[in-house]
Structure formats: structure tokens, C-alpha cells
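User: Fold this, then the next.

Assistant: Folding the first:
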Amino acid sequence: MVNNRPHGQFSPTGPQLAAARAATGLSVHALAEHTGLGVNTVRRAEAGGAKVLTTVNAERLVAGLQALGITFLTPDADGPGLRIATPPA
């Protein structure tokens, strides 16, 4: 997992969060409802990454996306990424 915070908290990038939401097929409004966050909080995270959120809100957003089958990947030479779980058959 990406770890950009000095105190060790997971912090995906804005593009990772936007891609994760797009991969789930949810609108900003639907993801906000799913996570219990405000629409503006989700938009702010997608623009600036989870590091612009409070720790609690970042954790809620990441956990909500992970519950929808998103796995955030550690950055490598190509940068950070994500994996989408295959839906059960």
C-alpha cells in the first residue's frame, strides 16, 4: 500500500481514488453515501489525495473502496496503481 504520511497512515493519491471510484461504477454522490462522507470530501480527496483529508475520513474512504473490491497497489517504477476484484461467478 502507498504510505505517504509521516505517521504511517495509508494515503492513496487523488488519481488512484478517482480511478478506484470509476472502477466501481459509482458516482461521487453514490460513493459519498456508501462511505458516509460528504460529496465535497470525496471531490477534495480525488483532487488532492487522501493526504488532504483527516485521518478518519481517509480511512473511511479507503475502507469503503476496499469493501467494493478495490485493492490499492504499492507504487513501483510506473507509479501507484489499483486492482479490481473479479466479481464472483
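Now the next one, as you asked:
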Amino acid sequence: MNTKTLYLDIAIRVLFVALYTYTAAMKLLDFPVYRIKMRRQHFFEPLKEWLVWGVPIAELLVATGLILPFLVAAPRLRRAGLVGNLMLISGFTLYTGLAASGIFGYVPCSCGGFLEGMGWWVHFLFNLVFTALAAVGVWLQRDMIRGADVSPSVCGRFSG
């Protein structure tokens, strides 16, 4: 991974760690209001209470997964954190797209912080941009993974 790629990878990770930490903190700091808004979402009733706790926990776990490989020097975990990130933001983007299309009727935004002030279409576009960034983050790891899978003995066979 060259220097520019590494800096872009770090910038994407920092951006998502900040986003997820911020939104999870906003949800947990104003938990009673967040819980009411989540209970008004259009999910199966038994799933709602799981999501009340699951969404901020998932955000914090993904944020941790994005920085943990650097803290414990585990380069193979770098891609896993980014794939988890892409899955989480893709789920949020799908939901905001459905909410923006009006398929659910009125739904309050339970995202927390400044995201709640966005309209659904603006929120959907915001999430699309972040989904694209998450996809770029996964794509950037391709060279690192390929390089990590090649051992010196294999390289020696191919060198003249």
C-alpha cells in the first residue's frame, strides 16, 4: 500500500469512526427519546427492541473494528472492519432510501445529532456518499490483501 493509499484509508476510517461514535453517543445520551423514535419505525414489533440496542452497539463495534487492526497490529483484520462498515452503511442507506421514497409513510429520523435535522432525501444522499466512501475503503485493501498472501518463498520461485 503506497503512502497516498494509506492516507486515504486512514481518512476514510477516521471519518466513519467519528460518524459512528457521534451518532451512537447521541442515541445513548438521549436514550428515552431515541427509543420512542425507534419504536415508531416500520419494523416487525419483536425486532424493534433489539434494534433499539443493536443499532448503537453495531455502530460502536464497527467503529472499533475500523481502528482495532492498527492498535493491535493485525493487518488482516483491516479489510474485515471495512467490510463490516460497508454492510452497516449500506443497510442505513437502503432504509433511508425507502423512507425517502415514502414507502413507510411518515417515519421520524432516529439517527441522532445533526443527521436528524436533514430531510429524508438529503439524508439518503448523505448516506449514498458515505456508502461510496465505504466501498472505496474496501477496494483500497485489495493490494494489501494480495501482498499479504504472497510469501517470500513463492516470490522467489518467480524471480529470475
